[in-house]
Design brief:
1 helix; two-stranded antiparallel ribbon; 64 residues; mainly beta
């Protein structure tokens, strides 16, 4: 013990940061995003489409 109060940099966060994904249906960030579809292309990188829980329910989307 150093005899000082821990600074904000010394303390662990009370909860880890949540990862976000982009919901391709409502065009916004979400913490509930799941992979819905993978679009493969002949050349170049493919694409992955994610949807949040609300959009999955609203549009009846099933995770891939």
């Amino acid at each position: 013990m150093t005899g000082r109060w821990p600074s904000a940099a010394d303390r662990e966060p009370t909860h880890p940061r949540m990862a976000t994904t982009w919901c391709h249906w409502h065009q916004g960030e979400t913490i509930t995003g799941l992979l819905i579809a993978v679009i493969e292309q002949a050349s170049g990188p493919g694409a992955a489409l994610y949807a949040c829980e609300t959009c999955r329910r609203k549009f009846r989307l099933e995770p891939a």
